[in-house]
Amino acid sequence: GSSSIPNFFHIMKRQFTETEWDVIKSMSNEWMQLDMFYRHWALKESFLKAIGVGIGFNLQRIEFNVSPLQLEIGKVYKETKMLLDGEKEEEWTFQETRLDDHHHVAVALGKQEGFVQKNSDVQSVDPNQLQFTLLTFEDLVASGIPITPEDSAYWDNFCSKQESPVKQSSHSR
Question: Which UniProt keywords apply (predicted)?
């Protein structure tokens, strides 16, 4: 919704550390910068979801050192490191992949009660194993059960509506 990528970055400035902004802005063009922005955003969001807090968390407390800079589509990476309050967090692993040219996925794997992650099997990823499955809408709703009986009149009414709203004249009341 911003008028430009630099304006969008200005609005989002407080969500990233200076080091993260340096990496984002080091990309060779605005679209690559936006791509790196969203990669960092996915990482931050994965951590917040893993610890169960919302976006009220001060995002400058967490800083990501992404590695490698470019992700190959379909390959899973775990090299990115996180700092929390300036301290390297060894107990957290971030698995990242690029699903396609427009979608990043980041999963935060961290210390859970009674579970020590260091040197565990959780970190080992078989690069030949399919890590993510792309699902269509039909895949997602295939096992769905309607909560009410189907009403064909409702569907017919829905289908009879115009594609987009027509602006009504202020004189027609």
Answer: Transferase
